[in-house]
Amino acid sequence: MSETSDKKLFEVEIGGIGLKLRTSYDEDTVKELVQYVNDKLDESLAATKSGSIQTAAILTALNIAEDNLLLKKRANLDLDQVQSKARRILTSLESSRIPKSGVGH
What we know:
The structure is a single chain. By secondary structure, the protein is of the alpha+beta class. The protein has one domain (3-95). The protein is 61% helix and 13% strand. It is built from 2 helices and 2 strands; from the N terminus they run E-E-H-H. It starts with 7 loop residues before the first strand and ends in a 10-residue tail after the last helix. The mean pLDDT is 90.
């Protein structure tokens, strides 16, 4: 079975440019991704004085990379906190166990 057999083809428009995307994501996810990129691109275009689509595309890529990096850092921080709490709970459980020799005697 080929890698592309489970992927669907979507025709989308980003920044006024038509693209064909082949992906295993569902239609709603593709629409959400395209809308996200278009929204970021619109923000970048509004911020550029030249109105250059190339400059806006680079700014958009940087903005999305920033969002991604900050989300990863936050997720790692949250994971570290969960792991730390889990270790504390495990230590507490292990120290509160009833000795085997004391059970039922």
